[in-house]
Structure formats: structure tokens, C-alpha cells
Amino acid sequence: MTATWEAGYTVWPVVIPLVAAACTMLIRRRGARRWVMEAAVLLTVVAAVTLLVRVTAGGTMVMKFGGWGAPFGITFVADSVGALLTATAGVVALAVAVFARADIRARRRNAGFDPLFLGMLAAVNGAFLTGDIFNLYVWFELMLVTAIGLMTIDRRRDQIDGALRYAPMSMMGATFILVGIALLFGEAGTLDMAHLATVLGGRPPSMAVTASGFLLLAGFALKAGMFPLFFWLPASYHTAPIPVTAALAGLLTKVAFYAMLRVLVTVFGYGAGGALPGAQLLLAILAGATMLVAVLAAIAQVDVRRLLSFHVLGQVAYLVMALAVASFAGITAAIFYTVHTMLVQTGLFLAAGAMQRASGSHDLRAAGGLIREHPYFTGLFAVLALSMSGVPPLSGFWAKFLVFEAALDAGTVASTFLVVIALVTGVLTLYSMSLLWLRAFWNPRRVGHAGRRPIPRAMLAGVGIIVACTIGIGIAVDPILGLSRAAAAQLVGHERSATAVDGSAEVVP
What we know:
Layout: H1 5-8, H2 12-26, H3 30-58, E1 60-65, E2 74-78, H4 80-103, H5 106-110, H6 113-129, H7 133-151, H8 157-188, H9 193-201, H10 207-224, H11 232-236, H12 242-267, H13 279-299, H14 304-324, H15 328-359, H16 370-373, H17 375-389, H18 395-410, H19 413-442, H20 457-475, H21 477-492, E3 497-499, E4 505-507
Parallel strand pairs: 1-3
Antiparallel strand pairs: 1-2, 3-4
Helix pairs in contact: 2-3, 2-6, 3-4, 4-6, 4-12, 4-15, 4-20, 4-21, 6-7, 6-12, 7-8, 7-12, 8-10, 10-12, 12-14, 12-15, 13-14, 13-19, 14-15, 14-18, 14-19, 15-17, 15-18, 15-20, 15-21, 17-19, 17-20, 18-19, 18-20, 20-21
């Protein structure tokens, strides 16, 4: 591996959790394992934020492994979008790790929670930072392995059933992705995404390239939980421990969308006359259908985990809607919305875990009285619910505003129709969260159920980290919006300079 200290910033968000995962497998004392995991997560956050600062100040950084360039070499590329989402993933992992202090007990830690969680974090960051499309597939496979291990950590029957629903669909998506990559390699002779963009950009689209694009799109859409192959997500997520479900909701579906965004825009030139005719209409149909089906299904749920699982699908649909606009403003909105939903979706699932600790059940019919018993927690949950519903001045308002603005500026019939569907979905989302609020917080506790139960401070702290972020982004929106615009500019090719491992200028399409 050839690199300078400067370029080494690109791999630390992956190396730190991977090394720590190996260490936690060798450590026998539970307390020591937990401390190593928490320290590794904190160091990963520091490394990711440092990387974001360096990229913002100096431009894209590229690390070439072994000194080999394209088409043979493997690269890590830290540009604005990769660095921003890596830093966001670090915050998500930190909130989950803090919450887990009160929820993940000795049995789960002995079963491998710490190394599996760190392995999943490394895979997520690897997907955000890789410059090689085959290694993007490899990181997806590592995410699958660690996710299955975390979902079945209690070895309960419902968890095994959930994993049996989750794994086949994820493997089907991986198969689509792998076949698409094989077609791309056969056509272009390279797997480096920047080099692919250069090779494919200078020739008319062939049947193999078009087929590859739609296979990749199908694989990423399946992993993101898009209609019609979305049933696996709400059927499996709710079976895992809450910290695991929160991490899955905040990270894995968002990585799938990021991969869709990166590959379509960078490799295929989507939105700039690229090689995928009909992709824009397909994305619009997928986004609109997923929005409506997900929110209507959420309204019918009484288990708070399944309710929020359907909202995970609905929020991903907003990301796909922004991508369907196929404009610079749409890509900017998609990146901003990804940061917002990674945080808020994680926070809502963590809040669901705190609700269960306070009421003794995930069933909304058995809850009630939380506004009187836990007023501070009630305030934290209200911020998250309002943010997801798009109420100002929280991050969700700005995220939806940017998506609507981009769609209306496009001025097409499809984009205008998507805005109407999104507005209806937003109203129904607010209605769904209002029902949750009434049942769990406002209504009196049902007779015969236990009285007030304390919520551990670690749980409140984990939720509080996310709440502080969504309030902070809502109040100081310009920095994240500026980073999102810079990231969109790099994706569509408005900014092409990068810092190579030797410090010299390198062209990265």
C-alpha cells in the first residue's frame, strides 16, 4: 500500500473499526470488549470528521493500494459526498453505541455484538469510500454477513424467521449487482468507477452497458427496499434488538441508495444524457409507489417497530424522488436528505427502544401515559417525529423543501405528479406519527399494566445525540447544504481535481 500521511486519512474510518473488531474477538472480559468497541466508534467519528474537514479544505483525496492505477489498481476515494456520509455514519454509530450500554447485556455481548457491530460500521464506511465498483459489492456482502449475525444474536425463532426473509432478498440483489458488474467489466475492461466514466463517456451506449445499468439499478433498489420487492424489510427489522434495528435503518438502506446515486451519476452519466434511457421514469414510478404503499401500511400498524420500518421505506422513496428529478438541484437534495434521514431514522428506533423500556411493550395498545411519566423523553421523541414529518425549523423541513423545490423547478409532468404524491405522503406521515403520539404518550396507561418504569440515562443520551443533530442542522442549515452542493458538483463533474497519494493533481471524472 503506497500512501502519504495525508492520503491515509481516507482509510482510517475503515481500518479503525476493522482492527477493533478483531481485538474484541480476542478479548475475553465483557467490560473490556465494550470499552474497546466504544473507543473504536469514538475514534472512527474523529477520523471521519477529520477526513471531511480535509476534503472540504483541500479537495478529493485518492489512495492507490500497491501503487497501481486504473484499470488494475484498487482505490479509496474521499470526495465530499463520501466524506460527508462517512461522518454521518459515525454519528449514527456513536448514538447506537451509547444506547447499547443500557440495552445490550452480557449474553448478547458474548454472542458477538461488539465485533459484528464494528464490522458492519467498517463495511458501511468502506462502501462510502471505495472507488472500485467490485469492492462496493464486497462491502455490501460484508454488511449482509454482519447484519445477519446481529439480527439473529438472540437465536430466537422470530429472529431466525426474519433472517430467512432478509437474506434471500439481499442475496438476490447482490446477484443482480454482480452480474451488472461483470457486464460492465466485459465492456469497459476496468472496475474503477472514475475510469469507467471516462471509458463509457466516449462511446454510444451498447446493449451490454444498458443491461448492466438496469441490473445494478434493480440490485440497489431491492437492497434499498423499493416497491414492489420491499416486504422483506418490515418482516425482518422488527425482530432484531433495538440498537441493531436502529443501525440497520440508519445505515444499510441509505448505503444502497448512495450506491445507486454514485453508480448512476458517476458511471452512467445519469441526468446528463447518459446511457440509461427510461431510467428517470422508472425511478419516478418506484418512488411514488413506495411512498404511498409504505405510509398506508405504517398507519395500520400497532407494533411501533413495524410502524417505523414502513416509514424507513417511505423515507428512502423521497431520496429516489430527488434522484428521479435528474438535475443538479435534485442530486443536492438527495444528498442533504440522506444525511437527515440517516440521523432521524436511527433516533426514532432508539426512541422506540426507550418507549418499550418505559411501557414494557412495543405494542401501542399496551402503552400510554408517557407524557406524564417521562416529560423529557416526550420532548425528545416529539422533535424526531416532527422532523421526519417535515415540520420547520427541523432538518426534515429543509430536506423536503429541497426535494420539492428541485421537482417543481424541473417542470415536467412526472416531477409535478411526484410532488403531489409526496405532499399527500407527508400529510399521512404526520397522521401516522400523531396516532403513535396519542397512543403511547397522550392516552392514559391502560388499567392492569405496570406503573412508571425508568428510562436509563444511556438510552436518553443516545436519543439526545440524534435530537441535537436534527435541531442543529435545522437551525444552521447552510453548512450541510453547502457540503451537499459541493458533493453534487463533484458527482456531476463540475469539480474534477483531486489530491493523489503523492500530493500531485490527479484528474478524477
